[in-house]
């Protein structure tokens, strides 16, 4: 997982930021190139995260952990809600 | 169920917040649904302390990450009362837990539920309508570049990494979508929100869903 390898090493050089920004521009072109005629579909572009490489973004902002959740069963819920 | 429903329209959803460079999305989402649950019960809508959950939820890792389930379990087991954000403000880094006396006013939970609603997003919409905004955990890698519109491609399930709040849904158009509150500030996405296609478990939005009871 690229996020595991990335460790913030303090202020980033302008070259690094420029490289990350260029990579973002290329990624936006790729993501927007699919289904261009699909109305209301998501648009991707420059925002506050465009100066980060994906690994940096993930390492900083995507830190939620999960464990298995039980499958929802409407039948079970109905029987519970019928209990007075 | 109505075709379109959004708890924001009932004035029971607080403003979008910004986790800054703290990996505390799991705390923002849990606190956000507790705020709404109390407002739905008629209490004033107010920001509660995310920092308290970050610092005190000992079964998580503060700004280095955490689990919504662990946070809900901690709230439920300890019956900790969440204080107002003004009393324990967010500082975007982990810190030592502040303890409050029992006389301190605060907001605890009576319970919570956690389910996998994949392939049952209509049931998930009923749960949202019944219980209030829901905590969800999605794969948000492609959200780095999101500007607006309905996310329906480039967002698989299977590797959930970011906790969010689902506040509503809109099935009036050709592509039904969930209305999802993020914690990256109101300049991100659509005023801080993202729209995720309903059906097909886009981004894994239905895999890890929780509700709180107050």
Structural description of this entry:
The complex is a heterodimer of chains A (84) and B (214). Chain A has 84 residues and is mostly helical. Helices cover 49% and strands 5% of the residues of chain A. Chain A has 4 helices and 2 strands. Chain A has helices at 2-5, 14-33, 54-61, 74-82; strands spanning 43-44, 64-65. Chain A is flat, with a radius of gyration of 21 Å. The N and C termini of chain A lie far apart (49 Å). Mean pLDDT of chain A is 82; it is low at 1-9. With 214 residues, chain B is an alpha+beta fold. Chain B has 4 helices and 10 strands; from the N terminus they run βααβαβαβββββββ. In chain B, strands 1, 3, 4, 6, 7, 8, 9 and 10 form an 8-stranded mixed β-sheet that branches. The longest helix of chain B is centred in the N-terminal third of the chain and has 16 residues, at 25-40. At the A-B interface, α2, β1, α3 and β2 of A face α1, β2, α3, α4 and β5 of B.
Average pLDDT rating of chain B: 97
Largest sheet of chain B: 8 strands, mixed
Instruction: Please bin the fraction of helical residues of chain B.
Output: 10-25%
Helix-and-strand structural type of chain B:
alpha+beta
Largest sheet of chain A: none
How would you spell out the order of helices and strands of chain A?
HHEHEH
Distance between the termini of chain B: 23 Å
Form type of chain A: flat
> Would you identify the regions of chain A where 5 or more consecutive residues have pLDDT less than 50?
1-9
Q: Could you tell me the number of beta strands of chain B?
A: 10
* Element pattern of chain B in H and E: EHHEHEHEEEEEEE
Counted by DSSP, the helix tally of chain A is 4
Structural class per helix/strand content of chain A? mainly alpha
* SS elements, strand count of chain A: 2
């Amino acid at each position: 997982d690229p996020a595991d390898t990335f460790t913030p090493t303090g202020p980033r050089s302008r070259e690094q930021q420029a490289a990350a920004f260029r990579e973002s521009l290329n990624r936006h072109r790729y993501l927007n190139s699919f289904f261009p005629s699909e109305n209301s579909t998501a648009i991707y572009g420059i925002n506050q995260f465009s100066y980060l490489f994906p690994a940096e973004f993930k390492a900083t902002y995507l830190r939620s952990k999960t464990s298995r959740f039980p499958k929802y069963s409407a039948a079970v819920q109905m029987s519970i809600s019928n209990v007075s | 169920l109505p075709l379109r429903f959004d708890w924001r329209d009932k004035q029971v959803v607080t403003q979008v917040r910004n986790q800054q460079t703290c990996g505390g999305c799991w705390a923002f989402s849990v606190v956000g649904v507790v705020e709404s649950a109390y407002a739905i019960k008629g209490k004033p809508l107010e920001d509660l302390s995310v920092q308290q959950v970050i610092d005190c939820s000992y079964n998580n890792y503060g700004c280095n990450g955490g689990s919504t389930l662990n946070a809900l379990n901690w709230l439920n087991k300890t019956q900790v009362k969440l204080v107002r954000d003004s009393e324990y403000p967010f500082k975007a880094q982990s810190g030592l837990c502040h303890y409050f006396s029992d006389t301190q006013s605060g907001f605890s939970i009576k319970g919570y539920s956690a389910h996998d609603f994949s392939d049952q997003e209509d049931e998930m919409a009923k749960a949202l309508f019944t219980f209030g905004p829901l905590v969800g955990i999605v794969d948000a890698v492609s959200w780095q570049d999101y500007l607006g519109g309905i996310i329906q491609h480039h967002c698989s399930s299977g590797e959930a990494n970011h906790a969010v709040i689902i506040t509503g849904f809109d099935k009036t158009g050709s592509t039904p979508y969930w209305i999802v509150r993020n914690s990256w500030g109101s300049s991100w996405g659509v005023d801080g929100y993202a729209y995720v296609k309903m059906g097909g478990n886009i981004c894994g939005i239905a895999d890890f869903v929780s509700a709180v009871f107050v």
